[in-house]
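**Fold in tokens:**
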Amino acid sequence: MDTDPAIQIPPGSLSGVGLTDAPESVYRAIVAQLAIQPDELVEATGLTVESVTASIGTLISRGLVDASGGTLTAVSPLLTLGDLVAKSERDARMARAALDELADHHRSIRQQEEFRGLEVIHGRANIGGWINHLMRATERELRLFAKPPFEVVGVAETDSEKELAVRGLAERVIIERSLLDEPETEQDLLASLDRGQQIRLAETLPSKLLIADDSMALVQLDEGGPSHDVVVVVRPGGLLTSLTTLFESLWERSIQLREAPGRRIEPYPASEDALSDPMDRKVLALLLAGHTDGVVATRLGVGLRTVQRRVRHLMDMAGTDSRILLGWYARDRGWL
């Protein structure tokens, strides 16, 4: 009884051992017979005489068919196809290994391309060499984040920094508040102020950072502690642009550090008593309530330029160019 075509399992394919459709059809027809004549294969396969003839030649050359005596018989598939399938499997495994190797190589090259602007530096001696190199290579301005401990990427009076002063380069430094608790920090900061550095204070900083012009930067990579022996060199590109943008953003939000009387560092040189003028208090209160300069002038019955001068005076006392930070400063010093 014929099997229902709908539930027949389709035969496998010998394309994996290099047989195309026509030779495989001829081979299957030969395997199905104990012996068969070449001319009978045309009817058995539905192929043309030319295609059957070419297929027979392929099968004989591959050792799959014996044509002795003019009759075609199939050599045991287990002997012939087994070797071919085993070879094909070995070739596939070798191809997989080559694929994995090439993929890893390609991935490595891509990573090198993506991070070619970065270089990781290990060891304090190497880091110190890079710091000196960047300081000497700077042509316009150095920008720094300073965090404890002070001596690695800080503002101490080193030979390289003395050279910066002689060359007249601009230096802007943002220090983390905790740095004020470091031994000898105050003397170093006073020396830096004497040299003309602009120093501002932030509550926290993400890492130590040194930016030379807009051409190169050093960023601390390790998490802190006394070692600080891993940094990354950042060359021009998107990451360097991001670092300079971050610096400028924090600079705008930081408090200016100044020298207080008696050669002391005081991050808040203006005390509560410094805001003794009642008009200044009124201006500040209205300003922090969210009113514009024009509204403040109207409410107080004074001119707009008078309000603007008083706001400028308040910002100078706070050591900031930001009105937002002026409010934070006023709260911290108890001005209101």
In short: Residues 77-114 form the longest helix (38 residues). DSSP finds twelve helices and twelve strands in the chain. Residues 1-10, 152-157 have pLDDT under 50 and may be disordered. The first strand starts at residue 65 and ends at 66.
